[in-house]
Amino acid sequence: MATERLTSILSHLNPSKSGLSSLTQKNPDDIVITLAIRTPLAKGFKGGLKDTQFDYILYSLLKTVVDKSRLDPQLVEDICLGNVGDAKAAYNIRAASLAAGFPNTTAASSVNRFCSSGLKAVQDIANQIITGSIDVGLAIGAESMSEGGDRLNRPFHPEILKNQEAADCMQPMGQTSENVGKDFDITREAQDRFAAESYRRAEVAQKAGWFDDEIVPITTQVKDPKTGEMREVTLTKDEGPRYGTTFESLQKIRPAFTQYGDRSTGGNSTAAVLLMKRSRAQQLNQPILAKFCGATVTGVAPRIMGIGPSLAIPKLLGKFHLSKDDVDIFEINEAFASMAVYCLNVLGLDHAKVNPRGGAIALGHPLGATGARQIVTGLSELRRTGKKVLVTSMCIGTGQGMASVIIRED
Q: Of 82, 83, 84, 81, nearest to 93 (Cα)?
């Protein structure tokens, strides 16, 4: 069974016929991205957004979208927010959009598929445009880890818990990470080396200013922990990168989840993607940054949810008749080093192509924001390097994986 599964994965990664030429063709009905921006990634509970309400974080980005897009807000027919931890997300996105300048004729909703929520918001808006339900839509991925959380407040019903995989959906994410490490023999050393490289890349990228064109500032109030006084701050850079982090320094850190094993070691943000058909973008004189080709989703065993990208990526490439060599950049969420190392190894990816600016280990992983943030970061890196093809992917709580393919044009 394992051999057949691996053979299937490899066949998707290396299809007999490349579809890259068809994806790079330009057609009036293509779904295109005309704006892709994000706020800085701030540390949860102690960073620059620790005292900022989630609705204000949304409002601030939406205001910036209106300003930077130079698009009449009345043309935006729907806004979809991907979010995990806020039960009032639908209220917040509707109120924030109205306050930011969108008219009451612009609808708003929220969607939750855990760590892929931001990408699902993009996919949902794109699908509405494809079917003709709307012409212009805005996808948001956002999370305040300081305010929300994704843990269950009670166990499932006893009848549901009789099914082992259903019961496994209750496993904490840290435990699923250790399961991946144990089941697939991902050593502590391999994970620490991967993590150190993530930090190194993020440090290089931040010092070189590579993130600057994707980040928009957010001005807010932060409470001084010593005096309790509120002071105004403007955040312009990600707070996660720790300069000088090395493999040797990571080896000294005790495991984060000792009750589950020894393989785990040691945000708040929002991102926006504006979508419409190519023909509509040309009519409105909007810049066409990229073509959103599509996305797909798959399920995996809940107890090893981290391996999701190892199945979602081959499925995506197979659907679009691409090989892994056609892809210039892979943005894969680093929910934990164990899953990142596993996916890199099983898929046989060139590490230089994966998270070239570092990933969530160094930058942070605000759950609902990641799916949209990866698109923003990936497109920025494609522009910097003059490359074309981006694949984004992430593991998803309860055992799923999602992936998308995007072609840069600007």
A: 81
Q: Which residues are catalytic?
A: 115, 365, 395
AA identity, residue 373: R
Q: Residue type for 252, please?
A: K
What average pLDDT score do residues 335-342 get? 96
The answer to whether 238 and 363 are in contact (CB under 8 A) is yes
Residue listed under structure tokens 């990641």? 370
Q: Are 367 and 85 in contact (CB under 8 A)?
A: yes
Strands 389-396 and 400-408 turn out to be: antiparallel
- pTM of the model as a whole: 0.94
User: 259 burial class (0-12, 13-18, 19+ CB within 10 angstroms)?
Assistant: exposed
Q: What is the pLDDT of residues 19-58, one digit of tens each?
A: 999 999 999 999 999 999 999 999 988 899 999 999 999 9
| Rounded average pLDDT over 331-356 | 97
The per-residue DSSP string of 235-272 comes to E-S-S---TT--HHHHHTSPPS-TTT-S-----EEEEE
- CA proximity to 65, closest of 123, 108, 129: 108
The DSSP letter of residue 37 is E
CA–CA separation, 287 vs 41, rounded Å?
26
